[in-house]
Write a structure and sequence with these properties.
alpha/beta, 17 helices, five-stranded parallel beta sheet, single chain, binds iron/sulfur cluster, about 475 residues
Length: about 475
């Protein structure tokens, strides 16, 4: 019978059915970082358990790492404690650690793929919401909580419910100045932040077929923001070309065997889906959020919508968003003054994200407005080194951006990069929840990296297509 990738990969990893009705699922890869793992390791020690498959377990450090200095000990005592705790645990349990001291660290969802750890047909988990990123490779990737991290460390398995699968087809070509970030913000705007609850999202159609792996990662990364437990793209030649030669990718005869396996996990023609939705790429414009959820967004030429245009169940959240963001219905999003610009995060902290911005900065010779604090934060040390080798650090510095060390930085602000007071931030990250960027009153406008750059050089939300003459 024709099956989806989700069904195939899920079924192939079932260890047994549990009395609860859930399946016990083998996890092919477990990624760890400093924030959610210390308690899980403590629980393991309490019960005198070992890590069952240290060779399938990898760690890095991302949330707490300062991006203005590499000096240890960290000034924040709690950050230093988390770092030391992870260093101790990886040593004790024999886990490979991509550490700052070895210049191998980065956001966990950037480090895994760039090392070749993330592969098609895998089950992957990590104690972080944006683990869905890895679905870009045709993997089933789940964010998990601390007690589940403990379970996976001890058993390499997770108790999971089977999800429904929604196929999201986007056909046609994006207009110039529209990027993968706009595509996923558009999908979330249309389907809502709870639209994906109970679903895995399969992204399909010729738009995704043409996307690079970086772009697919941007899309899958935000599946969770649309309520989906995970999201994926079927693996293809783009996936295989990305993986070939990477450190943990199969080599030699194992590569050929892997290719046959990876081809076999693709969704079959004729597979049945629980739901199918279709969008046209040419309908998508650069998107900016105006509210406090990633679905509260408009195209750049549009105005903040009236509460009456939303379902009755959403109107309270809309009014809360107006009050928090200080917006009124009918107000154009374009022209909104910003204080901070942030380009980075596991959504948009990869080489190609910065490449687009470098191109327009070099062509336009524009500078960041003096009133704007602008940060460029590579998603990993590898990305950062690549950028320096290409001279992009200088391009950004010359344009008035601060070029920083790798890390999560201002995406969640569990490090010194924080908004102050009511600052308004144009951000390439993935969440615009209240207080997300470090100030309890801080405000976040999500958008693509190129739109962040346009805001930085304009001092206000602007249409990057006009600012940079993108046609
Ligand atoms: S970049 Fe942001 S979303 Fe991604 S792992 Fe770090 S804090 Fe989480």
């Amino acid at each position: 019978m024709a099956q989806t990738l989700y069904e195939k990969v899920f079924d192939r990893h079932v260890v047994r059915q549990l009395p609860s009705g859930q399946a016990q699922l083998l996890m092919g890869l477990h990624l760890l970082h400093e924030v959610t793992s210390p308690q899980a390791f403590a629980m393991l020690r309490e019960r005198k358990l070992k890590v069952m498959f240290p060779e399938r377990t990898f760690a890095t450090v991302d949330h707490i790492v300062p991006t203005h200095t590499k000096l240890r000990p960290y000034q924040d005592a709690m950050a230093e404690e988390m770092m030391q705790s992870l260093e101790k645990s990886v040593k004790e349990f024999g886990i490979r650690f991509f550490s700052p001291s070895a210049n191998e660290n980065g956001v966990v969802h950037i480090v895994g793929p760039e090392r070749g750890l993330t592969q098609p047909g895998m089950t992957i988990c990590c104690g972080d919401s944006h683990t869905a990123t890895h679905g870009a490779f045709g993997a089933l990737a789940f964010g998990i909580g601390t007690s589940q991290i403990r379970d996976v460390l001890a058993t390499q398995t997770l108790a999971m419910d089977k999800l429904k699968v929604r196929r999201i087809e986007v056909s046609g070509k994006l207009r110039p100045g529209v990027y993968a970030k706009d595509v996923i913000l558009y999908i979330i705007q249309k389907l809502g932040v709870n639209g994906g609850v109970g679903f895995a999202y399969e992204y399909a159609g010729d738009l995704f077929d043409r996307m690079s792996m970086d772009e697919r990662m941007t899309v899958c990364n935000m599946s969770i923001e649309g309520g989906a437990r995970c999201g994926y793209v079927n693996p293809d030649q783009t996936t295989y070309q990305y993986l070939k030669g990477r450190e943990y990718a199969p080599q030699g005869a194992a590569w050929d065997r892997a290719l046959a396996h990876w081809d076999s996990v693709r969704s079959d023609p004729g597979a049945k889906y629980d739901d199918v939705v279709r969008f046209k790429a040419e309908d998508i414009a650069p998107i900016v959020t105006w509210g406090i959820t990633p679905a509260q967004s408009v195209a750049i030429g549009e105005v903040v919508p009236a509460a009456e245009t939303f379902a009755a169940s959403e109107r309270d959240s809309v009014r809360e968003a107006y009050a928090y963001m200080d917006f009124k219905a009918g107000q154009p999003i374009e022209g909104t003054k910003i204080d901070v610009a942030f380009i980075g995060s596991c959504t948009n902290g990869r080489l190609s994200d910065f490449e687009e911005v470098v191109k327009v900065l070099q062509a336009g010779k524009l500078k960041v407005q003096p009133s704007v604090r602008a940060l460029v934060v590579p998603g990993s040390v590898a990305v950062r080194n690549d950028m320096i080798a290409r001279g992009w650090d200088k391009v950004f510095s010359d344009a008035g951006f601060m070029f920083r060390e790798a890390g999560c930085s201002m995406c969640l602000a569990m490090n010194p990069d924080k908004l102050q007071g009511r600052e308004m931030c144009a951000s390439s990250s993935n969440r615009n929840f209240k207080g997300r960027q470090g100030s309890p009153q801080g405000r976040t406008l999500l958008m693509s990296p190129i739109m962040v750059a346009a805001a930085a050089v304009s001092g206000k939300v602007a249409d990057a297509r006009k600012v940079f003459n993108i046609a």
